[in-house]
Each structure stands twice: as C-alpha cells, then as structure tokens.
Amino acid sequence: MDHTAHQHQNAHQHHHGSGASWRTAAQATLHCLTGWAIGEVLGMVIGTAAGLHNAATVVLSIALAFVFGYALTMRGVLRAGLPLRQALKVALAADTVSIVVMELIDNTIMVGVPGAMDAGLTQALFWVSLAASLAVAFALTTPVNRWMINRGKGHAVVHAYH
Questions:
Q1: Measured distance CA(120)–CA(122) in Å, rounded
Q2: What is the Rg, in whole angstroms, of the alpha carbon atoms belonging to the chain?
Q3: In the chain, where does DSSP find H-type helix?
Q4: Whole-structure pTM value
Q5: Apex CA 161: angle with CA 11 and CA 85, to 5°?
Q6: Cβ atoms within 10 A of the Cβ of 125, count?
Q7: Distance CA 31, CA 77 (A)
Q8: Quick check: helix, strand or coil at residue 73?
Q9: Taking the CA of residue 122 as centre, how many other CA atoms within 13 Å lie in the half-sphere pointing to its CB?
C-alpha cells in the first residue's frame, strides 16, 4: 500500500469504529502546524524587527498564522479541483480549532517567558522560546486533532480531498 493510500485508510478508521491512530493525528497536526508556524514565526520576526509593541506583534503573528495555515490547506484542496469558496469552507472546518489551540499555547508561552517578547532577533532567548512554544503547541494539539478526527471533524474533512 502506498503512503497516500495508507494515510487515507488511517484517516478514515473512525468510520469503522477503531478510531484514528496517534500517527494520523500527528500527521494532521504537523500539516496544520507547517502553515501556522510559517505565519507565526514570520509575524514574530516582523513585529520584533520593526520594534512593534508586544501586543501588536502577537496580533500580527496570529493573523499571519491563520492566513498561512488556511492557505496551505486550501492549496491542496484547490489542487483536488474544489472551487475557491468551497476550498475556503474546507480549510476553515479543518484548521480553525487546531490553529486556535496552537495559538493559545504558543502565545501563552511567548508572553509567559520573561524577556522572550522583548528579546531581539539575535538573542537566543527569542529563538529558544519560539521553538519551545512551537514544540509544546504540537504536542498538546495532537490529542485535540485525534479527538476531532475520531468524530469526523477537523482534519478528517480534508482527507476526502486527498
């Protein structure tokens, strides 16, 4: 069985009563994290480099995380032939909860680590805090995605178009 067929089978195990595997949930989370992290890191870098207030940097990061997160999902769904409006609906259904959970975790860590938001781009504290926040967000969002996939929600919506 090729990799794509295996992913498809794992993603749809919930229809047969056995539930999504942790591997499937981790793959779904990693997919979502990729687009989200691009936006999140870009927002933190732009905000920090521009000397924006911490709140403005967080808002910019959140906005870009959603834009890039949805865009990555939409790219694949559009490639499957869905019209733009339907692709947006699929992306919203697939990624919103996942991105919200990752944002809550990431920003709580970045704001909670003393000096992380005020550290410059050349300081290790900024990058270590950001990397740690992404890792923790991935670890804590994977069970949420597994729970949602098992109920036919979240990333399970996208698998019909792979």
A1: 5
A2: 17
A3: 3-11, 22-49, 54-79, 84-112, 124-150, 156-159
A4: 0.79
A5: 130
A6: 15
A7: 13
A8: helix
A9: 0
